[in-house]
Amino acid sequence: MQTDGHTSGAAEDPLVAAAKAGDKLRVKQLLEEADDRCQGDRKDPTAAFAAALQAFHTEIADTLLRLGAQPADVPPEELPSLRQAVDFGSPALVDALTHSSIRHRYPRTELNAMRDLARAWHEAGTEAELRRRTGSSDTIARTRVQDDEYCTVGELTLAGTTVRDGHGAILTHLEKMLGIRTSCQELVARALERDADHTAWSRAAIELSHRRQPEAWATAETLRADADPLRRLFGAELTRLFEVFADSHDEEYCVLAVAALTDWATAETDPTVLAEVLHGLSSYQGPRAEAALLLHTHHHVPAVRRAVAAGLGTPPHSRQPSDAAHQALLTLMNDPDTDVQIAACHSAGDIANGDRALTDTMASLLDHPERRVQLQAVHALARHHDERCVQAAERLGPPRPGYREDETYYLEAAWRYERPREDTSPG
Predict the structure, then answer these.
(1) Which residues face 153 on adjacent strands?
(2) How many whole angstroms separate alpha carbon 224 and alpha carbon 234?
(3) SUPFAM superfamilies from the xrefs (predicted)?
(4) 46 near 70, Cβ under 8 Å?
(5) What is the distance of C-alpha 101 from the center of its chain?
(6) Is 390 within 8 Å of 414 (Cβ atoms)?
(7) Which of 66, 87, 255, 380 is spaced 20 to 30 Å from 326 by Cα?
(8) SS3 letters across the chain
(9) Residue 62 CA to chain centroid, in angstroms?
(10) What's the pLDDT score for residue 320?
(11) Residue 9 backbone zone (phi > 0: left; psi -120 to 50: alpha; other: beta)
(12) How many Cα atoms occupy the beta-carbon half-sphere of 47 within 13 Å?
């Protein structure tokens, strides 16, 4: 558990100080500046990683881990204990402390004890256990926080003590580490205690989808037929992940998943569930999947249209979209919802055949008021070898400080396009 006064003072190194303060943007800016000064030799983020963990800034620690931090280089005494992490209820903190490079630091007896601790929190309920430990009947302050790069958890503060409600996800993680096979029903129950953005939900879905066995598939099928939209939503994500984690499109559970999602798309009435179902078709392009997507091109809910737009990209071996898909992409690139426009532009870029109607519509997005739309349009035009990407990239300028990693992805397509043109220019 984290209590008031858990962190104090300021580290001398600016990167460590930014990590300790919880300033993710500054952390990324400092790493970029170090890259520039050292001509490509990135500053070691390991000390900042340790500082972020000590301050319980788990999202920053997760980012630093992705950017090269080495947990094995941090002495155990400079990290929170595993018991502190479990009590705090942060799945990301537990993940960092049990990283593959330092997992050997914990004997099985300790992992068993931590599993029992996580189960105790989970079974008691975060609020009830927090009240028991603090002895306070005051009002609990609640908020939602980013725990890692992708998932959020609830955070509760009472009598100067702060905890997160990720104990169910931690329990799932520790059981997997210990080789304990949790029942499908229990994993579903843990997921449905939370919402779709919570770590407990995603962790249960991933664990179940990796079980390429009849029992797990039957669980997805049962959820699909449930009257409760929340249960169907979890079933849709689980079915989608069966397809995502398949070794090939010919794998048994991939075939089953695509068939189920395609049929499901014609019958689902809940927009949130429908969007998840359609997202499940985005990496499998075929006539039936395309027809299921096109059925919802004009859906009244933007999230559904975004799923349609994302699913209409064409794989490299088949460059030509159908006439209906072509028209849908033109329509969706002019959608009133910005995220729909971005998804449609991305899919149009996937086609990469120089189609004039598509490239002209992409080029119209270069004047969009939002930079993220302009970036996507530059990238898509470059993939179509359309020279309009070059001037547009020049107008956008270099990636913004703190956003280099993301924006470089979009701009470098135009840079790659420009280099051959420069090489062939008369000298």
Answers:
(1) 145
(2) 9
(3) Ankyrin repeat (SSF48403), ARM repeat (SSF48371)
(4) yes
(5) 23
(6) yes
(7) 255
(8) CEECCCCCCCCCCHHHHHHHHCCHHHHHHHHHHHHHHCCCCCCCCHHHHHHHHHCCCHHHHHHHHHCCCCHHHCCHHHCCCHHHHHHHCCHHHHHHHCCCCCHHHCCHHHHHHHHHHHHHHHHHCHHHHHHHHHCCCCCCEEEEEECCCCCEEEEEEECCEEEECCHHHHHHHHHHHCCCCCCHHHHHHHHHCCCCCEHHHHHHHHHHHCCCCHHHHHHHHHHHCCCCHHHHHHHHHHHHHHHHCCCCCCCHHHHHHHHHHHHHHCCCCCHHHHHHHHHCCCCCCCHHHHHHHHCCCCCCCHHHHHHHHHHCCCCCCCCCCCHHHHHHHHHHCCCCCHHHHHHHHHHHHHHCCCCHHHHHHHHHHHHCCCHHHHHHHHHHHHHCCCCHHHHHHHHHCCCCCCCHHHHHHHHHHHHHHHHHHHHCCCC
(9) 12
(10) 73
(11) left
(12) 11
pLDDT of residue 317: 55
- The winner for highest mean pLDDT among 43-57, 80-94, 393-407 is 80-94
- Look at the block and give the residue holding tokens 């599993």: 115
**Mean pLDDT score across all residues of the chain:** 91
* Burial of 211: CB neighbours in 10 Å, binned 0-12, 13-18, 19+: middle
Answer whether 64's CB lies under 8 Å from 19's CB.
yes
For residue 163, what are the β-bridge partners? 156
Instruction: State the Cα–Cα distance between residues 15 and 12, nearest whole angstrom.
Output: 9
Q: Please tell me the distance from the alpha carbon of residue 284 to that of residue 249, in angstroms, as a whole number.
A: 8
Name all domains of the chain by residue range, CATH numbers in brackets: 1-79 (1.25.40), 99-209 (no CATH)
pLDDT at 9: 47
Given the structure tokens 């931690």, which residue do they identify? 170
> Token match 């396009």: residue?
417
* Residue 3 confidence (pLDDT) above 70: no
Q: What is the pLDDT of residue 250?
A: 85
pLDDT, mean of residues 131-155: 97
Q: Tell me which residue has tokens 């996800």.
A: 169
Residue corresponding to tokens 């330092």 = 102
CA proximity to 148, closest of 63, 84, 214: 63
CA distance 91 to 153: 9
How is residue 87 written in tokens?
């009590």
Two tokens, residue 283:
């990496």
Give the pLDDT confidence score for residue 286 in this predicted structure: 77
Using alpha carbons, select from 203, 208, 206, 230 the residue that is nearest to residue 218.
Answer: 208
Tell me the mean pLDDT in the region 380-384.
94
Give the C-alpha separation, 283 to 95, whole Å.
Answer: 29
